[in-house]
Amino acid sequence: MSEHGKKTSLYTQHEAHGASFTDFGGWQMPLKYRSELEEHHTVRKAAGLFDLSHMGEILVSGSQAGAFLNYALVSNLAVIAVGRAKYSLLCTAEGGVIDDLITYRLSEDSFLVVPNASNAPVVAEELRLRADGFDVAVEDQSEATSLLAVQGPTAEAVVLGLARPEDADAIRSMKYYAFLELELAGVPVLLARTGYTGEDGFEIYIGNNMAVRLWDAALEAGKNHGLVPCGLASRDSLRLEAGMPLYGNELGPTTNPFEAGLGPVVSTKKTDDFVGRAVLEPLKDVEPARRLVGLRAAGRRAARAGYDVIVDGAPVGTVTSGLPSPTLGYPVALAYVDAAHAAIGTEVQVDLRGRGEPFTVVPTPFYRRQPAGSPS
C-alpha cells in the first residue's frame, strides 16, 4: 500500500492515459481522464471502460452456502439459479444497512458476493461472524481480483471483439443479471451483464495478473465502437441519473430498506430466519416516516449532499446526492424527505447556502435508456 492509498493493478495504465486520481475507500482511483462530461456522454452514446478493482469479492462455498446466505442477507439467495445474480442487502439486527451488494451463484454450493469498496473488509468479517454453525467457508478474494466494466450502447460489440467466435451467441443472448465463465482476449474471466450506469453493459472479474492485458485489449477492441476510459466522476453522475443508490449517501446503518425504496429486496416469504428479520418484517406493511425521493430543479443551481429540503420555511428532509444532469440538461437530486412531502409533484425548496431554490418531487430513475431499436 502506498502512503496515499492502495493502487489497483491498472494504476500505471490510468497514469499513461492522463488520469486525475482521487482517494475512494482507501484506494487511489481515476476520477477522470480528460472531461467527466465527455466521459458521461460517451457512456450514454457509445461505451466507457471502468476500473472497479477497488470493489470486493468474497467467495462463499460449502454444502450450506445457500442456507447461510439466506440467513446473512435479507433476500432469498437459495433460489437463484446457477449462472444468475441477485441484488441484496446486508443489514444489522436493528434493520440498518451495512452494505448493498450483488451475489452470483457460481455452482450449487458456491457463491461470489461483491460488496462496495470501503465495505469489503467489514462485509467479509460480518459474513465470517454469521457463518458460525453453518457448513460454509468465507474467503475474501478481493486482493487477488480485478474488476473491469464496459458500459454503454456499444458495450456488447466491444465484448464480442474480445470473445471467441464460438461464445458470441451466448454473449448476445445473456440476460440482465446473468453471467458466463469464458475467455476474453484469451484470458479466463467471469463476464456478468450487470452495471451501475443505467446502460447495457458488462462487468468482468479477472485475476490481477491478467488485468492489464484485458484492459489494453478492451481499448483496442473498442476503437471502432467509441470506447473511452472513464473515471469515478462520470460513474457517479451516470448512476445518479439512473436513480441508483450509493452506499454512504443513500444507504447506511441509519437507513432501512423500506425508506430507501428497497422494500422488494427484503424477502419475508422465505421461511429462513435472517439477521434483522424481527425488525424488518413488521415494517413491510407500514408507511415509512421518511422516503428517498427524486428531485428536479426549476432553476440551474444544483443541490448537493447534506443540503436541507425545506417546506414553508421548515426543514423536512436532506439531500443525499445531487448534480446537474449532463444527459437531461437540468439539476437532479436524491433526498430523504418526510412522508407527508414525498408524493410525486410535491413542490419543495432546497436551501442552497442560505437561499431557497425551488425543486419538485419526480419519479426515479431520472433517465431510462431507450430499448434497442427504439427511436431516440
For the sheet with most strands, the description reads: 6 strands, mixed
pLDDT averaged over residues: 96
At the fourth level of CATH, the homologous superfamily of the largest domain is Probable tRNA modification gtpase trme, domain 1
Shape: globular
Task: Kindly provide the name of the CATH class of the largest domain.
Answer: Alpha Beta
What tags apply to this protein structure?
376 residues; alpha+beta; Gyrase A, domain 2; Alpha-Beta Plaits; Elongation Factor Tu (Ef-tu), domain 3; six-stranded mixed sheet; 9 helices; aminotransferase
Helix/strand layout:
Elements: E1 6-7, H1 11-16, E2 20-24, E3 27-32, H2 36-45, E4 47-51, E5 58-61, H3 65-72, E6 85-91, E7 97-107, E8 110-114, H4 120-130, E9 137-140, E10 145-151, H5 155-160, H6 168-172, E11 179-184, E12 187-192, E13 201-207, H7 211-221, E14 227-229, H8 232-241, H9 277-283, E15 290-297, E16 308-311, E17 314-324, E18 331-338, E19 347-352, E20 355-362
Parallel strand pairs: 1-3, 4-14
Antiparallel strand pairs: 2-3, 4-10, 5-8, 5-9, 6-7, 7-8, 10-13, 11-12, 12-13, 15-18, 15-20, 16-17, 16-19, 17-18, 19-20
In words, what does this structure look like?
With 376 residues, this protein is α+β, with helices and mostly antiparallel strands. The chain has 3 domains: 6-52 and 144-241, 2-Layer Sandwich (Gyrase A, domain 2); 58-128 and 256-288, Aminomethyltransferase beta-barrel domains (Alpha-Beta Plaits, 2-Layer Sandwich); 289-368, Elongation Factor Tu (Ef-tu), domain 3 (Beta Barrel), CATH 2.40.30. 20% of the residues lie in helices and 33% in strands. The chain is built from 9 helices and 20 strands. The chain has helices spanning 11-16, 36-45, 65-72, 120-130, 155-160, 168-172, 211-221, 232-241, 277-283; strands spanning 6-7, 20-24, 27-32, 47-51, 58-61, 85-91, 97-107, 110-114, 137-140, 145-151, 179-184, 187-192, 201-207, 227-229, 290-297, 308-311, 314-324, 331-338, 347-352, 355-362. A 6-stranded mixed sheet has the order 11-12-13-10-4-14, with helices on both faces. A hairpin with a 2-residue loop joins strand 11 (179-184) and strand 12 (187-192). Helix 2 (36-45) crosses helix 8. The longest helix has 11 residues, at 120-130. The radius of gyration is 21 Å and the shape is globular. The relative contact order is 0.14. The mean pLDDT is 96.
